[in-house]
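Please decode residue identities from the backbone states below.
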């Protein structure tokens, strides 16, 4: 039996408004025993997924998941490599996705939610935290289940996506454009991101919401109004899209990152458009569709191979930089999926 030195980052204080990385989190070092009970595996964390939802997990309020406790390792989805196993179904060297949190190593039990990763050529294991992970699945189920894109999609369907250069938004926008042939307008926070959306991802139009003329541009870009709005941001962008929603339009309430740091929430002003246009605005949580993940991953893997789904990652290196990297999500520093690389994969031990 031996012990491994394990760096962890725990939640030290609940932020009231914006996250101050220095006071919100605390780094600690613990010794982790590698003495495994039957069925357990010891894993090394390779990549940590950073998600805007983490801001919500720090609030002690009723939600879809319990809050992270004070002094508890901060929760996250991670891609990990098995370094010791007492489970015949999981071999040393294999890659898995699990919720180990912000730490370097973890011992996982058979009851933990552990998913094996079968990366295919040209796909990095970290893709299983992005396009083929929860953000990609969120885009897929938001469009299919809430947006009813199978029924509404096609060249006469105008889709607007906010947070379009981010992990979820970029997948939603590409599925709407390249799988369903819709007219797609992406909204993002810089001219560089807008260039990326049009030139690299092939969207019809991209609008910078920080432009002084954004609302005029949104009006001009939606002459046939908005049939489906995939909303990742909430706030003023949601209000702008409510004013342009089409008759029987759909608003997929995926996220509201512009409001997550608000100490006091405020609602949309133009929600009465839902009445006049008989439109529907509906929220969802990706976990609701867990039983259908397999089919979604199969579809999206196919679209990646066909060149219909492209992705970028913004990778911050070193576990110590995880708190600052989380704050960067709220400043728009990422294009595509925001990740922390904690350790290199040992490719020799991978079978
Ligand atoms: N419902 C679900 O099950 C589910 C699951 C996963 C994610 N989500 C939600 O989906 C949204 C996107 O998550 P993600 O993981 O894909 O993150 P992401 O879009 O990759 O990153 C967040 C992006 O949000 C934008 N942003 C930050 N502050 C903003 C503000 N005040 N106004 C407008 N945009 C702002 C930034 O881009 P710009 O440079 O463009 O500002 C930033 O890059 C989040 O709201 C998240 O909570 C929901």
């Amino acid at each position: 039996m031996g012990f491994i030195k394990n760096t962890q980052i725990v939640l030290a204080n609940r932020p009231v408004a914006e996250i101050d990385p220095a006071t919100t989190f605390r780094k600690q070092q613990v010794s982790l025993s590698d003495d495994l009970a039957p069925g357990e595996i010891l894993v090394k964390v390779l990549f940590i997924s950073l998600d805007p939802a983490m801001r919500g997990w720090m609030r002690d309020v009723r939600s879809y998941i319990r809050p992270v406790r004070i002094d508890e390792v901060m929760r996250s989805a991670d891609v990990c490599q098995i370094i010791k196993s007492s489970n015949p179904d999981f071999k040393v060297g294999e890659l898995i996705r699990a919720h180990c949190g912000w730490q370097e190593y973890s011992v996982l039990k058979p009851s933990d939610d552990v998913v094996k990763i079968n990366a295919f050529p040209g796909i990095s294991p970290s893709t299983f935290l992005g396009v083929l992970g929860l953000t990609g699945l969120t885009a897929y189920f938001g469009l299919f289940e809430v947006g009813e894109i199978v029924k509404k999609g096609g060249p006469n369907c105008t889709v607007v996506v906010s947070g379009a250069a981010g992990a979820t938004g970029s997948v939603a926008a590409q599925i709407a454009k390249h799988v369903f042939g819709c007219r797609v307008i992406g909204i993002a926070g810089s001219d560089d991101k807008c260039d990326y959306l049009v030139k690299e991802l092939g969207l019809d139009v991209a609008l910078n919401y920080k432009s002084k003329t954004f609302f005029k541009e949104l009006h001009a870009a939606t002459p046939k109004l908005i049939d489906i709005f995939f909303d990742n941001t909430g706030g003023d962008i949601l209000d702008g899209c409510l004013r342009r929603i089409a008759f029987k339009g759909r608003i997929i309430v995926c996220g509201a990152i512009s409001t997550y740091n608000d100490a006091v929430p405020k609602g949309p002003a133009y929600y009465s458009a839902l009445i006049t246009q008989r439109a529907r605005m509906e929220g969802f949580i990706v976990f609701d569709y867990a039983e259908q993940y397999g089919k979604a991953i199969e579809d999206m893997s196919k679209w990646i191979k066909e060149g219909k789904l492209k992705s970028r990652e913004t990778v911050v290196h070193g576990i110590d930089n995880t708190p600052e990297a989380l704050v960067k999500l709220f400043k728009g520093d990422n294009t595509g999926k925001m990740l922390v690389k904690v350790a290199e994969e040992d490719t020799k031990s991978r079978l």
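Observation: The first strand starts at residue 3 and ends at 11.
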